[in-house]
Structures are given as structure tokens and as C-alpha cells.
Automatic annotation (TrEMBL), chain B:
Signal peptide: none
Descriptive protein name: Heat shock protein 70
Spans annotated as Disordered: 584-622
Alphabetized PANTHER family for the sequence: HEAT SHOCK PROTEIN 70KDA
Molecular function per GO: ATP binding; ATP-dependent protein folding chaperone
Stretches with biased composition (Basic and acidic residues): 603-614
Organism the protein comes from: Dichomitus squalens
Cross-referenced SUPFAM superfamilies: Actin-like ATPase domain, Heat shock protein 70kD (HSP70), peptide-binding domain
Entry similarity comment: Belongs to the heat shock protein 70 family.
Gene3D superfamilies: 3.30.30.30, 3.30.420.40, Actin, Chain A, domain 4 (3.90.640.10), Substrate Binding Domain Of DNAk, Chain A, domain 1 (2.60.34.10)
Length: 116, 622
């Protein structure tokens, strides 16, 4: 697995991770199915639901919830999901176009990057 | 199971509740009131909290502390704080860059931090619960406005800990309302709920999606830290003080006792106007025997506060924008908080939603406490069927990030991300052979880091020399459901890493940390500085040597001229010339040795005594 991809952070020591399997949905699942699956699993793994458990179980649930959140973040974002389907990459990728701060900041950043 | 209570810690009053027998019980204080004023009064013998303290406010204004919530977890330099200080009759001063309170207590001057005052109030709330329940209370969920940042939440938690409570969660007030709504009425379909909470001191607005699964998904929060019942009271007090001045040529400002009494009358009038159209504001002997009596209509009250009332709509706008939901998609608008009793507020909100009927079915005053009690039960491991399916997916109240090139704020965890969450981003150096990186953690939404709140900083040093842009430094933010943030940075090249846990007191670097950082920096700095200093010294010596040589050559030249001049020159003139040459040589030698010693002091290299150098260890996005 690519060490630079954020996926390695959430699934350490795992060779091959299928984010669809993490959420328990099929590859052709629609956005609504993904949302529903995430919420169902969140109800199961959210640390608040394991407040009374021992430390190991808590840590385990916490990791599971983070993996869940990560899989949801990738698959609920149309652009990221498309990229993941094509390349298996899960990072946010290069942003083309202005962010929240508008074009000026975008070009400033571009200038920074090019002239560095 | 430990006994866990929910506490609504309000600007003007507090309320405590507990989940028992499948419902929330609001616990009355010893005077039988469900609400305890957030007042602490210090006297010659004791401190009073709640109703007793509030009664002292008019008699002993400088030793009765209230509205402390507005000071909690903020910097003294905050312009908002300055405005608040102007409004309170007790003394607020600066200590460790934070506001503190000074009062007379038991014949001595005592200083309190806002969290210490809050811990007194929380202790009181705990005692109220304990005497009602007849058992020891160990833990609590405490609510805060949704717009409270990490520092404010941490400080609130510290106050709870000081009061001997295990703080299970510092919960946003509007999120608490969502939990109450969820348990109160189970609605088996997904719907968007907007919660509008206008209390005594602040306004919080949240958009929450309630799912049929039982999950409450907080989409966005917004608020106004300075908008609530107190501000409406202020308006009335200002208005009537001016009227009193016009009629009696007496300036009430500075007379805390008179202002306090006028404020109480104004607050009463404001409440009356929620049901009546007209009321009388009356204070006997307001100033040196002069009675004050005037009438106030609902219309003129609304006119006086019109701009304030309209401001309550701004957070609704920003919540809808952030959640990317159109106002027509909002299924329920829930009003909570005492100030939503003002009819004009309700009308404005309803008009905003194109005449939508508002949900006023929740208990305006108790909804927050109920939610806190429900969440407390869940976190304490309650096994009630009613709370079983409830899960509150709350969000990070502010963006969290680090400072990068040019002082920009690069958010790592964006505002409104569901917590717990963990995010990483790769960064690099900004200059060639940069020996380290200075990671500064900020919270806030501004594009410039310095406009945000600094919550922590650390240094990774000992990077292997490399051109700028080459080293790869991974920065990871890990935030749990309790808003506890752990920040770590790893230099992928050397494997060096640093981790810090952000807590309320990491506002700046302590002196000791500063010194340690400087010493570390000096190690890297010294070598370069020494080289530079040695070179400068050599240059200076060479230059003075050159000057000396030129001077000697001139003297030599004049001597040669004289020697070649012929026979008509007297012994006197030759002797004179020799003397001048000797003097020139002596001056040159003296200058040279002087120049050598003057350079001595700089050879060891300049000391790094400030952070300037480390500040240049900037990170840059990859």
C-alpha cells in the first residue's frame, strides 16, 4: 500500500483495504445507501456507545469509528469517490479552481508553488 | 452506575437535571426554584451563590460577580472583553493575559479567575443535586454555547474538575436541545431541525438532521456571543438613564446601586411586555430620594432593540449556508431560551422562514438541561431503551490548523467536521537547509493565522540539510469527542517526531519552554554566526591594515621627496620629517592593534535571545 496515501494512517498494517467493504455497501451503491450505512455503523461504533466498556474495547471502537469516518469522507464526496474508483487514491487530490478564499488566493498559492 | 447529572451553565442562570426512570427530572434548588442565578457574592464571612448572591447585587455591587461566562477562556485583550468590563460593577484586571476578578472577601482582597468563579457555581449545582438525590454525584455533562472555541470549552471543563466533577462532556447547548427533541418525540423519518436558542447572554443556532436510525447529525452551528436578554436590558437601562438625566439633570452612570435597581425594574418590564402591550417601570428613590416612574409600550421596547432583534437572524443565515440547505428544506424550527418569549423575536424568525409555524412545544427554559441530562446518562452507560438508539454526531466548533508560509492559516480539521476525527497533511520547508520546523497550532476561521487563537506550538529540530521543498513533514490532528486535540508532526526523512496535547493553558510558550527553544536554536545558529563573525573580523582587520599601509606609504613618499631634494636642507628639517614618520608609524600600529581587540568580542557569535529565528522555521504546504 502507498505509504503516502492517508488510507495507510487509518488502516495500519493492512495490505489491501476496500472502503466499500468498510461501510458494508456495494460498489454501485448510491449516495443515500452510503449515508444510511455510515449512520447505522456509527450508531454501533461511536465511542459514546462504548462509554461503559473497558479501555481495549473503547480503543477498538474508536479506531473503527475513525476508519468509518474516513471511508465515509472519501465515498460521500463525488470527486474523491470517482478518483478512488479509478486510481485507488484517497487523498483530497490537487484542487483545481478557487477554494473558499476566491481566485486571488488561488493564484497567490499557485504562484507560491510554481516559484518555490 | 455512577450518578451523572446534566448542568446548563448559563450566562445569567444555571439549571441541573438527571435522567431517572426513563425521563429527565429538573432538580430544584433549596429555595424550590428550578433555576439558580449565576451570581456569586463575597462577604465578610462567606460566599453566597445563586438567589442569595443576586439579592446582594444591589447592596454590594463591587463584590457580587455575575456575567462571568462572557469572560471565560478569553484573552484580556479581546475587544469584546473590554466592552463587557465596562458594563460590570466589579473589578476585572489582567493577569497572565487573561481577565481576572478582584473582590473583598473576609476582610482581604482576593483574586479569582473566571473558571474559579464558575467552579464555585458548579459546586453549588452539584450540592443542589446531591441533597435532592440523597447520593453522591460524581460526574456531569456541562453545556456551553455552540460557538465556544476549544479554549473556552477546556476552561469550562477545568471549572468542572475544580468543582470535583468528572466532566463527561462539554456539550453545545443546541446539541443538547437536539437530544431532548429526539427523546421527546420519536419521528420515524429523516428531517432537518433548526434550533434557535436565545438566552440571557448569547445566541446559538444549529442545524441538525435527525435520522430515522436515531442518529442526530449536527450539520452546522453559528451564534452571537453577545446577544441575549442582558443586551436588551442594557438598552432599556441606557434609555431610561438618559430620560432620568433629561428630567432631573442627574447622571446615574457610576452609581452602581442605582443602575442595578433600574436594571432589575427594566428586566421585569421586559418580561411583562412578552404578554402585555404596556407596562410601568418604577423605582422608588432611585437617586437621592427622587422616584422614577415611566411607562413603556411593547412597541417602544421593540423600537429600542430593533437592531439587536434583527441581528438574531444573521446566524440562521450562516447556518443554512454552511449546511448547504435551503430554508424551505428546514422541517422544524425550534425556539428555546428565555428571550424567545419576546413576541417580536418569534415573528422575525417565522417571517424569515416565510411564515412557517414555529415549534414552541419544548420547554424553553429546561430543554438544554434535559439534553445535558440525557447525554450524561448515555455517557455514564445507562441502559434505558429510550436513550439506547440516540447518538449525537457532534462537530468541531472551529477550524483547527497550523500557520504556514506568509502567516497563512492552513486548516487541518475544518469547522463542522464530525468528531471524533483524525486528519493528516504533508508539509515541507520554506528555506534551504532549514534546520527545523516551528509548528504553531491555531483555532479559528480567519485566513491569517494571527487573527485566530493560538492554542499550542512546538518545534521539530535536527532536520537533515536539504533544499527547500524537499523534506516531507506530516502533520496529524487527532480530535476526540471531548474536543481533546492531539497534534503530531513527523519528519519523514529523519523519523523525528513531536506530539502535543492541546490544553487550555497552552496559550503561549512559558518562559522555560522559550529558553529551551532558544538554546536549541542557538546550537544551529552558533556555527553560522561564528563563521560570519570571524569573516567580518578578518575583513575589518584587513581594511584597517590597508589604511595603515596607505598612511605609511604617504609618509614614506614625503620622506623620499625630502631626501631627493638636494643640499639646501637643514638638519632641523630632516629631524622634523623623521619625527613625523615615527608618529605616523606609531599611529598606524596603534590603530591596527586596537582594531584587533575591538573585533574580539564579536567572535563568539551573537546570542539568540528571542523567537525571531525560530519563527523563520516555517512550514509550507506541499
Amino acid at each position: 500500500m502507498d505509504d503516502n496515501d492517508p488510507i495507510s494512517q487509518f488502516f495500519p498494517d493492512q495490505e489491501d483495504v476496500d472502503l466499500y467493504a468498510v461501510l458494508g455497501v456495494k460498489q454501485d451503491a448510491n449516495a443515500d445507501d452510503i449515508k444510511k450505512a455510515y449512520r447505522k455503523l456509527a450508531l454501533k461504533y461511536h465511542p459514546d456507545k462504548h462509554a461503559g466498556a473497558n479501555e481495549d474495547a473503547k480503543a477498538d471502537a474508536s479506531l473503527k469509528f475513525q476508519q468509518l469516518g474516513f471511508a465515509y469522507a472519501v465515498l460521500s464526496d463525488e470527486k474523491r469517490r470517482g478518483r478512488y474508483d479509478l486510481t485507488g487514491k484517497t487523498d483530497e487530490g490537487a484542487d483545481f479552481g478557487p477554494g473558499e478564499d476566491g481566485w486571488e488566493t488561488y493564484f497567490e498559492q499557485l504562484f507560491e508553488e510554481v516559484t518555490r | 452506575m455512577p450518578t451523572a447529572i446534566g448542568i446548563d451553565l448559563g450566562t445569567t442562570r444555571c439549571c441541573v437535571g438527571i435522567w431517572r426512570n426513563d425521563r429527565v427530572e429538573i432538580i430544584p434548588n433549596e429555595e424550590g426554584n428550578p433555576f439558580t442565578p449565576s451570581y456569586v457574592s463575597f462577604t465578610e464571612t462567606e460566599w453566597l451563590i445563586g438567589d442569595a448572591a443576586m439579592r446582594k447585587a444591589a447592596r454590594d455591587p463591587s463584590n457580587t460577580v455575575f456575567n462571568v461566562k462572557r469572560l471565560l477562556g478569553r484573552a484580556f485583550s479581546d475587544p469584546g472583553i473590554q466592552a463587557d468590563i465596562a458594563h460590570v460593577p466589579y473589578e476585572v484586571f489582567e493577569k497572565d493575559m487573561k481577565p481576572h476578578i478582584r473582590v473583598r472577601y473576609r476582610g482581604n482582597t482576593k483574586e479569582f479567575s473566571p473558571e474559579e468563579v464558575f467552579s464555585l457555581i458548579l459546586t453549588k449545582m452539584k450540592e443542589i443535586a446531591q441533597s435532592y438525590l440523597g447520593s453522591i454525584v460524581t460526574s456531569a455533562v456541562i453545556t456551553v454555547p455552540a460557538h465556544f472555541n476549544l479554549s473556552q470549552r477546556q476552561t469550562t471543563k477545568d471549572a468542572g474538575t475544580m468543582a470535583g466533577l468528572k466532566v463527561l462532556r462539554v456539550l453545545s447547548e443546541t446539541s443538547a436541545c437536539a437530544a431532548t427533541y429526539r427523546v421527546d418525540r420519536w419521528n420515524a423519518r429523516d428531517h432537518n431541525v433548526l434550533i434557535f436558542d436565545l438566552g440571557g447572554g448569547s445566541l446559538s443556532v444549529s442545524l441538525v438532521t435527525a435520522h430515522e436510525s436515531g442518529v442526530l447529525d449536527v450539520q452546522a452551528n453559528a451564534g452571537d456571543a453577545h446577544l441575549g436578554g442582558e443586551d436588551f436590558d442594557d438598552r432599556l437601562v441606557q434609555h431610561f438613564s438618559a430620560e432620568f438625566k433629561r428630567n432631573h439633570r442627574v447622571d446615574l452612570s457610576g452609581n452602581h446601586r442605582a443602575l442595578r435597581r433600574l436594571r432589575i425594574a427594566c428586566e421585569r418590564a421586559k418580561r411583562t411586555l412578552s404578554s402585555a402591550m404596556k407596562t410601568t417601570v418604577m423605582v422608588d428613590g432611585l437617586y437621592e430620594g427622587i422616584d422614577f416612574e415611566t411607562s413603556l409600550t411593547r412597541g417602544s421596547f421593540e423600537d429600542l432593540c430593533d437592531d439587536l432583534f434583527r441581528r438574531t437572524l444573521d446566524p440562521i443565515d450562516s447556518v443554512l449556508r454552511d449546511a448547504k440547505i435551503h430554508k424551505s428544506q428546514v422541517d422544524e424550527v425550534i425556539l428555546v431560551g428565555g428571550s424567545t418569549r419576546i413576541p417580536r423575536i418569534g415573528r422575525l424568525v417565522s417571517e424569515f422562514f416565510d411564515g412557517k409555524e414555529l415549534n414552541r412545544s419544548m420547554n424553553t427554559d429546561e430543554a438544554v438541561t434535559c439534553g445535558a441530562a440525557i447525554q450524561a446518562a448515555i455517557l455514564a452507560g445507562a441502559t434505558s431503551e429510550k436513550t439506547q438508539g440516540v447518538l449525537l454526531l457532534d462537530v468541531a466548533p472551529v477550524s483547527l490548523g497550523i500557520e504556514t508560509t506568509g502567516g497563512a492559516m492552513t486548516p487541518i480539521i475544518k469547522r463542522h467536521s464530525t468528531v471524533p476525527t483524525k486528519k493528516s497533511q504533508m508539509f515541507t520547508t520554506t528555506s534551504n537547509n532549514q534546520p527545523g520546523v516551528f509548528v504553531q497550532v491555531y483555532e479559528g476561521v480567519h485566513a491569517k493565522a494571527k487573527d485566530n487563537n493560538l492554542v499550542g506550538r512546538f518545534v521539530i529540530s535536527g532536520l537533515s540539510p536539504a533544499p527547500r521543498g524537499v523534506p516531507r513533514i506530516e502533520v496529524t490532528f487527532d480530535m476526540d469527542a471531548n474536543d481533546r486535540l492531539v497534534v503530531s508532526a513527523t519528519d519523514k526523512g529523519s523519523g523525528k517526531s513531536q506530539t502535543i496535547s492541546i490544553s487550555s493553558d497552552v496559550r503561549g510558550l512559558s518562559r522555560k519552554e522559550m529558553e529551551a527553544m532558544s538554546a536549541e536554536a542557538e546550537g544551529y545558529y552558533r556555527e553560522a554566526a561564528e563563521r560570519k563573525a570571524a569573516k567580518k573580523s578578518l575583513e575589518a582587520y584587513a581594511s584597517s591594515l590597508e589604511t595603515a599601509i596607505v598612511e605609511l606609504q604617504n609618509a614614506l613618499g614625503r620622506a623620499t621627496l625630502l631626501m631627493n631634494a638636494g643640499k639646501d636642507i637643514s638638519a632641523e628639517v630632516y629631524r622634523h620629517r623623521q619625527q613625523a614618520m615615527e608618529e605616523a608609524a606609531e599611529t598606524a600600529m596603534r590603530k591596527l592593534s586596537g582594531s584587533a581587540t575591538s573585533q574580539q568580542g564579536e567572535r563568539s557569535g551573537r546570542r539568540v535571545s528571542d523567537e525571531k529565528y525560530i519563527r523563520s522555521w516555517q512550514l509550507s504546504p506541499v
